[in-house]
Design goal:
Layout: H1 3-26, H2 39-60, H3 68-81, H4 90-106, H5 110-113, H6 131-140, H7 156-191, H8 197-205, H9 220-241, H10 264-268, H11 271-276, H12 282-290, H13 293-315, H14 333-352, H15 354-364, H16 375-399, H17 403-427, H18 438-446, H19 448-466, H20 474-487, H21 492-521, H22 528-531, H23 535-549, H24 563-567, H25 572-594, H26 604-607, H27 611-633, H28 635-641, H29 643-670
Helix pairs in contact: 1-3, 1-21, 2-29, 3-20, 3-21, 6-21, 7-16, 7-17, 7-20, 7-21, 8-20, 9-29, 12-27, 12-29, 13-27, 14-17, 14-25, 15-16, 16-17, 17-18, 17-20, 18-19, 19-23, 20-21, 27-28
Amino acid sequence: MTFRAVILGFIGVAFLSSYTYFNDWIMRQTMFVGNFMPISVYGFLVLFLAILYPLWQKLTRSKGMLRRSEWAVVLVLVLAASAIPGSNLLRLFTPALIMPHRFELTEPGWQQQGVMELVPEGMLVDISEDPDVVLGGYTRGLQEASDRLSFRDVPWAAWRPSMFFWIPIILSLWIALVSLAVVVHKQWADHEHLPYPIVTFTKALLPDESGNRSPVFTNPIFWLGLGGVFVIHSYNYLNVWFPNVLFGQIPLGIDFSPLADLSDTFTQGGGRILLERYTIYFTVVAVAYFLPKEVSLSLGIGPFIWVFIAGIFATYGVGTSGWQGTWPFGLTMDSMMIMGAYFGMLLVLLYTGRQYYAAVFRRALGFNASESVGSTAIWGARFFMLGMIFFTIYTARIAGLDWPIALMFGLGCVAVYLVMGRLLAETGLFFIVVSGTPATILWALFGARALGPEILFLMFMLSLVLFYDTREALMPYVVNGLKLADDCKAKVGRTAFFVVVALMIGLAVGIPTTLYFQYERGVDVSLWKIEQAKRPFNETISIMQRLDAQGQLEEAGQVTGLSRFKEASPHRNGLIVFTTAAALVLIFSALRLRFTGWPLHPVMFLVWSTYAGDSFAQSFLFGWLLKILITRFGGAGVYQRCKPLMFGLIAGEMLGGVIPMFVSLIYFVTTGGEIPRPFEVMPG
């Protein structure tokens, strides 16, 4: 690890954190991050290494070229910071802190129920000094005519208290997650030998330690895959601009939706919507090629199985959503099923690594352990515990959560994010969206009467900021990043330290930049991300009305601390579904261990009813079928020779996504701010 690699990484972090809002919400292009293989990062990597690197070598005569380990460090820092500017945080963070003041005036029932009285001091932006500038300027913009807004004109003082409220909560959880990634790294990478498909692709592109170009770029099969996919995406992008000149878009799949009519059960379960998502993603096909066949098959057929299950329930009048509340906090069959599956997978992970984890945490607490563990993992365990302790105490004192609830909520976030990291490492599933939240589970466990509206509201707000749209969650980035750093001979512990620094830099750059763009141009209050600021409040109002109708509102939430366990009234149906899903994961995991030819992987239950699972199902099935055909008719030799082709498919898709980003920026600048036409390569 060198000084220049760290500095280059920090520069990349600052750029990513500041530019993402401009790309996503001003130019309305493909999401700059969007998933765990950001097109912005990997597209630029492919563009530079595949096309510009030879020219760079000639100009510099190969002097001062970045070594493999330096490339790895730069990528790890930038990828970790990808959790900041988009869906994982800033997409919803600033609207969540200010828009409730507007909705209080426009939403019926907010003043009547007094829901804003549940907000602790500092949680929301203080608009009392100048509502017209602080709130009005946020929604309509402060820019006058064509003049640029001065950085000083943004009402920073109004936002400062809420930043002091939220940033320690965010950072303490993130430090705990980074530290836990350090703990599990050796178990997953060295003891269980997980495949890490995205890391495999990344390493195939990187130069060696002497700076020599990767041999994959001399393989014509690689260029065949890259060129073919890039031409397809480029043609479709040109068709966006010149629809009357070209011959229409090249279809990336077949619309099978008419087949849904062959089965009433399939149709009632939402099968038509699933079949309409027929886009074939070349990156997913390539990832499936590198996976064990049972994994790609399970990811492919899981959503179809869920549709039949949902259809059977619908036939008998039982919906998969709508016990209490609505997405994402509500107690629904869908959310409890996914949360139960994640819990089951967590138990599997803890069981398979029980000896190693026990040794690490025993040593971290100063006790002896029979198994030898490295000092890096020990310090990772210590910082994980410190991060969780700070998170618990701070949210209890500042936000007002009881410490048992704060601890359970924080551990719930960590548990789900840990399993997501495992999913990425084991399957390469780089687009993961979770149904349900830790608040959902605690609601089902305790009941609304034991928790009370205030505690439920606080958990909903914490979920909105810390756990809402999980497609860009921090943990999977760090899990993959530490594996890449380790394989490229960069020290894991030191890399993790600089990841934390990178996160601080990303916050310091990303938050002010995002606020500046929002105050300069204003925000569209009808956008999905703006509307989500209502959900914690509306869900709480629904709970209050239900408790009031049951005559329990006055006594709800009166008990505190551990006494809540005595007053708990668990949601029976929710916990049955939760337990059933966890049991399915445990049973399928046991069958995989018992029978070597078992055809399905329990990962199916973690994605089968999610948007991400639906989006990628057909691509995983296509990749599974392709691998079956190649291995059956070509053998192991042909399978190995086709690997560069798969690398090329991924590289071509990344390049096909990043080039329109450059074109859009050039168009925006040269036309004086005219919005370019949108073009998407990955799911939005």
